Amino acid sequence: SVDCSFSRGVCDWKQDADDDFDWNPADRERGDGYYMAVPAFVGHKKDMGRLRLLLTDLKPKSSYCLIFSYRLAGEKVGKLRVFLANKKTAPVWEENKGKDERWRTGKIEIFQGAETTNSVTFESERGKGKTGEIGVDNVILISGLCPED
């Protein structure tokens, strides 16, 4: 498994230059490292911020599971979407509101066919709300299918 959480810096994360705002590091509550976040007050409604994880050396014709923690805190904070590079048109995962301020776990299966996925993009879309944030943390890539809960 490959740990792409932001405190270790093993993976290649890139801010998208063509979006409206950047994701920024935010300190974890317990003080051990940080996560990436977009505060609700950044930008204007419908603005987008994209953070791209570049994947190298994924073997063709094999499966991977991308597991990550995410949080949508605050009222009308916006949307969090995940795109795979070879399926640019539609998100493979989307969440548009949090039931509460808690962190949740997202899982995405990545099948390497003839076309290999060479990046995963986390896209934050600004909502109407002015409080809260959208956060992503603990991004891990494991080989094989996603485990059941």
UniProtKB/TrEMBL annotation:
Gene3D superfamilies: 2.60.120.200
Pfam families from the UniProt entry: MAM (PF00629)
Record CDD domains: MAM
MAM domain segment(s): 2-148
GO terms for cellular component: membrane
Superkingdom of the source species: Eukaryota
Protein name in the entry: EGFL6 protein
